[in-house]
Design a protein that fits this description.
The protein has 234 residues and is of the alpha/beta class. The chain has 7 helices and 9 strands; from the N terminus they run E-H-E-E-H-E-H-E-H-E-E-E-E-H-H-H.
Length: 234
């Protein structure tokens, strides 16, 4: 089986629980660390799927690797190689598919409920799950590309996830581990302190709630990832 390519855009935002999920199922994967200077492949042909993780940058920034990633996403769609995006990763997929990525009405940082949309496609991804508490860390959001079906929304962000066939884009983070949350809280202390958004929690609140919510989040992630790997290319 060809490996899944997982793209990391900053050192603190790796695959997290996704790596655990894939390793438990003996599904090969390869980390492509954009933050460490790894080159963006020109073709999706060597991979069974492409996964794009988060990052503090904007897809609208003039970074040299962003057009290369957009071209790779277009190649993956043309070759029916499934895409999976987390936060920035979902925004990269959206931009590559012609949708606008813009400022969200408020920042979302911390734990917050998301609701599963009432449509058959959403049910095919989430099963019996109707809502859950996701982890958030974003100030921008994506519009839905042509042909997309909304899967999730929250009180503060209308488009929390969508699917187009076997491709899945998430605005929220389902990949979180305890270590990632602790690192993000430390690294993002200034951003948290400077925010007056009603959707931003303190670092202590995020970590206090972690024990009761992370395991459930991993369960939802496993449901999504299990559905996504069914579309992997041979």
């Amino acid at each position: 089986m060809k490996p899944i390519a997982i793209f990391r855009h900053t050192a603190t935002e790796g695959p997290g629980y996704l790596a655990t999920f894939l390793d438990q199922r003996n599904i090969p994967w390869q980390l492509i660390a954009i933050d460490a200077g790894d080159a963006v492949p020109q073709s999706a042909s060597a991979y069974s799927g492409l996964v794009f993780m988060g990052g503090p940058m904007s897809v609208n920034d003039g970074l040299p690797w962003i057009p290369e990633v957009e071209a790779l996403i277009g190649d993956a769609v043309a070759k029916d190689v499934p895409l999976l995006g987390h936060c920035l990763g979902g925004q990269l997929i959206s931009k590559a598919l012609g949708a606008v990525v813009s400022r969200n009405p408020v920042k979302e940082i911390g734990w917050g409920e998301v609701r599963v949309s009432d449509n058959d496609i959403a049910r095919s991804w989430f099963g019996d799950v109707r809502s859950f508490v996701a982890f958030h860390w974003h100030g921008e959001t994506f519009a839905l590309p042509q042909g997309a079906t909304r899967l999730l929304s929250s009180a503060y962000c209308a488009n929390q996830a969508y699917a187009i066939g076997k491709h899945l884009a998430l605005q929220c983070h389902v990949e979180m581990t305890a270590e990632m949350i602790a690192v993000w809280c430390a690294a993002g202390a200034d951003e948290i302190a400077a925010s007056s958004s009603p959707a931003v929690q303190s670092a202590s609140e995020m970590q206090l709630q972690m024990n009761g919510k992370q395991q459930r989040l991993n369960s939802v992630a496993a449901q999504l990832y299990g559905r996504w790997i069914k579309g992997l290319s041979a």
